[in-house]
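anyone else get weird line breaks when pasting these?? whatever heres mine. first is seq + tokens for prot A
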Amino acid sequence: EVQLQASGGGTVQAGGSLRLSCAASGFTFDDYTIAWFRQAPGRSREAVSCINPLDGTTYHVDSVKGRFTISSDNAKNTVYLQMNSLKPEDTAVYSCAAEPSSVYACYVGFNDYGLHYWGKGTQVTVSS
């Protein structure tokens, strides 16, 4: 059974940092693309970052480029999202999702279409 567990959220002041973790189990980690999404109250879900753990391909949306970094520890089957210089507009529930890389690629413009495996989200709140 594919399972994804997001953790690491919390409340920080603007300019602060958090590191989110997405622990994966039930599938061959290297064979899946893993992505982070976020959803703020009253807004639709938006893509944040994605990674292909097999070859290290990553992508970050423009609003987080230079501030967020996605990485993976393949030995631990875990993907991380290091978030620096946080802004109040980063406040949202952050969720990780996975799909076989053979059918879902990490690329410019990635979205949630075609992602079938989702973990429960973790709340990130950035105060001004």
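and prot B, same format (seq, then tokens)
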Amino acid sequence: HVQLVESGGGSVQAGGSLRLSCEISGITASCVAWFRQAPGKEREGVAIIHGNGRTDYADSVKGRFTISKDDAKNTLYLQMNGLKPEDTHMYYCAAKGGWACSLESTFNYWGQGTQVTVS
């Protein structure tokens, strides 16, 4: 049974910081990512980290967000600095197997989401 559980969301003021965590169980995934979605809009890829440590980010968050992972804890993180109201979304972590690893890939496993609200 594969489970991804996000935590760390909440409400912060513009310019503030927040750190999201994603506890992963049932799989040691080499490709994990963060996505976000606002009501009525398409899901948006935010950041991804490959098994080799390579990271990629959406242009909208480059320089502000940092994705990292702790393989020993099987935990994924998203450090969000300089938060803006437009960062207000439900944030989801996701994992996949196979060769491909990009924000355009099809991810097999998803968390339930954690809400981030910036005002």
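btw re prot B: The longest strand covers residues 18-25. The mean pLDDT is 95.
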